[in-house]
Design brief:
The structure holds 2 protein chains of 2 kinds. Chain A has helices at residues 6-28, 35-45, 50-59, 63-93; strands at 95-96, 100-101. Chain A is mainly alpha-helical. In chain A, β1 and β2 (100-101) form a beta hairpin. Chain B has a 6-stranded parallel beta sheet with strand order 3-2-1-4-5-6. Chain B is elongated and about 75 Å long. Chain B is α/β, with parallel strands linked by helices. Chain B contains 18 helices and 6 strands. Chain B has helices spanning 3-24, 28-50, 60-80, 86-112, 118-145, 159-179, 184-202, 210-232, 235-258, 263-268, 275-279, 292-300, 311-316, 319-331, 350-357, 368-371, 393-396, 447-462; strands spanning 304-309, 335-340, 365-367, 380-384, 415-420, 440-444. Chain B folds into 3 domains: 1-80; 89-273, no CATH class; 287-462, TPP-binding domain (Rossmann fold, 3-Layer(aba) Sandwich). Classes of the chains: A mainly alpha, B alpha/beta. At the A-B interface, α1, α2, α3, α4 and β1 of A face α1, α2, α3, α4 and α8 of B.
């Protein structure tokens, strides 16, 4: 595994800290009405772990790790596909008498 | 443009879309756009990773096969699952997310040890610790929510020492691995201790504390993805993971505040096991039991009715019947509002989803701060399967475990109708003074059945 340079490490830490603060600000702005779909959305987003799973499996370095990676891909894709679909299903239900269904684009 | 550069730009767009996705989720109007942005970002993340040239991936057969299996499991789960099962589905998907992160960490370690630089090894150990504890913790949370195991807290003497000890073993082995990446035995100790700690963490958690714990596990799943980003030197993973981590953190803070409790108290307090102690204080008091006919009479002239739903509404699947009652009352010129306590139900926002499913307009759903000033003007507050969140002891009784918790002030309404199956105490095992007030009428029965009967009576009157 290649060594990360000091500047890579620091850059990544910067990104992590800034993204966390951005996340805290954005989440604070989410209406309580939407906390359940928010959670199912962030849950779907956490299946970003699929990137790591793809790398492990795709490299195919050994049977064991390919298998572990494939299992991880399955877990992540259940979350990604199912997660966005269930969020859509939940959001479609939020209606207001005068507005009709919550719409995607305006 | 080389493949490497193309991948950077694809990831950059993906990261921006993840941020927008959370931002758009803030309002109902833009929320669906947010979900689509998130889905697109995920597609870009996968596409960017599979771009030929950069990582030089092969074994596409395995990849396609694994994604297909995921789709076959994930799609039916998303389509068929009833809305009342959203909390358990969320817990289950946290478990999948944690497992994926853990497995990737283990595979990375097996492929590269002992040639792993120290910083990367530290991140790898953190990824595995968080991933595996999220896996077992969420799996147990799922089992509790699905009532495969008892929802009561599992309490035994010395449990805090056992769980803390397990956590310390996990952390020590993580540190040891970071210093000596060559010792494979530390990997297995770390895995076992993290898996064990997940179970110990959730065992003492009772049903009503689930919203907080699910939020915490959500946060851990995100943080393990961010740790994976440090391992892979991939900023997209770091950003997506950090967004999730902060989301879970904020939600769990909101839940704790709504119960006036600290994290530590939720995680280690084992609330809900003191039923006997709270029960024998004071002489037995009498409540006034009423029939459905009495309830209808009381509701006939009401101008403003506020419904307070709780987990009992979800259990009885009463949301559609409540909506029908609201429709009938509104047809008579009565205003109907729903008061949503932040911790009502088994996950953040649970009640909102159920009422939305029943077609209740979301401008009728009011948060605690907005609805409390309305109670003094309400002719009737209907408490439907909620208990601790309407207990006035939270305001008045300094020695009550609920003291200080922000509650819905239903007792200030002109009259209160409590629909309950029996006189059992709430989750916290605390008697509720509300039931004994002069302006309170108790209607015993299944929430859905009582609602349906009231609606039927009204329809007879209106006809």
């Amino acid at each position: 595994m290649h060594e990360l340079s000091q500047s890579d490490i620091v850059e990544n830490l910067f990104v992590f800290v800034l993204a966390s603060f951005l996340g805290l600000e954005l989440i604070r702005g989410v209406s309580r009405l939407l906390h359940t779909p928010l959670m199912s959305l962030t849950n779907a987003i956490s299946s970003i772990a699929i990137v790591g799973s793809l790398l492990i499996t795709g490299r195919g370095m050994s049977h064991t790790t390919t298998l572990l990676g494939a299992l991880a891909i399955t877990c992540s894709s259940i979350n990604a596909i199912g997660g966005f679909m269930i969020t859509e299903r939940i959001l479609r239900m939020f209606k207001r008498k005068d507005e009709g269904t919550a719409r995607g684009g305006h | 443009m080389s493949a490497l550069n193309a991948q950077h730009y694809v990831y950059l767009v993906g990261a921006a879309l993840f941020v927008l996705s959370i931002k758009w989720m803030g309002q109902v109007r833009t929320s669906r756009k947010g979900n689509w942005a998130g889905s697109l970002a995920m597609v870009l993340a996968v596409a960017g990773t599979l771009l030929p040239g950069h990582y030089g991936l092969s074994a596409y057969g395995w990849i396609v096969g694994a994604v297909l299996i995921g789709a076959v499991i994930g799609i039916p789960m998303a389509l068929i699952m009833p809305m009342t099962a959203v909390p358990q589905r969320t817990a289950l998907s946290h478990a999948f997310g944690g497992l994926a992160a853990g497995l990737v960490g283990t595979a990375e370690y097996l492929e590269f040890a002992p040639n792993i630089p120290r910083f990367v090894m530290g991140a790898l150990a953190a990824e595995m610790l968080l991933g595996y504890l999220t896996f077992t913790g969420s799996l147990l949370a799922f089992a509790k929510l699905q009532e495969i195991v008892s929802t009561k807290p599992i309490i035994y003497p010395g449990r805090n020492a056992v769980s803390m000890g397990t956590l310390i073993v996990a952390i020590v082995s993580a540190i040891y691995m970071t210093i000596n990446p060559g010792h494979e035995v530390a990997l297995y100790v770390l895995m076992a201790a993290s898996l064990g700690f997940g179970l110990f963490l959730v065992m003492p958690i009772g049903g009503a504390d689930m919203p907080t714990v699910i939020a915490i596990l959500n946060s851990y799943a995100g943080l393990s993805a961010a740790a994976m980003g440090f391992v892979l030197n991939n900023k997209l993973l770091i950003i997506a993971g950090a967004l999730d981590g902060s989301s879970g953190l904020i939600l769990s803070i909101i839940m704790c505040k709504a119960m006036n409790r600290s994290f530590a108290n939720v995680l280690f307090g084992g609330m809900g096991q003191t039923i006997a102690k709270a029960g024998d204080a004071g002489p037995a008091r009498e409540v006034k039991a009423y029939t459905v006919e009495d309830a209808v009479t009381m509701l006939e002239d009401a101008r403003l009715v506020i419904v307070v739903p709780g987990y009992g509404m979800a259990v009885a699947q009463a949301q559609h019947a409540v909506k029908e009652l609201a429709t009938v009352l509104m047809a008579r010129g009565c205003d109907v509002k729903f008061a949503i306590h932040p911790v009502a139900g088994r996950m953040p926002g649970h009640m909102n989803v159920l009422l939305a499913e029943a077609d209740v307009s979301y401008d009728q759903l009011l948060e605690l701060e907005h609805v409390n000033p309305l109670f003094p003007e309400a002719d009737m507050a209907i408490v439907l399967g909620a208990n601790d969140v309407v207990n006035p002891a939270a305001r008045t009784k300094v020695d009550s475990p609920l003291y200080g918790m922000p509650i819905l002030d239903v007792d200030k309404a002109r009259s209160v109708m409590v629909i309950k199956r029996s006189m059992n105490t709430g989750f916290a095992g605390i008697d509720n003074d509300l039931f004994y007030l002069d302006n309170t009428m108790m209607v015993f029965g299944d929430a859905k059945k009582v609602m349906t009967e009231i609606v039927a009576d009204f329809k007879r009157i209106n006809a």
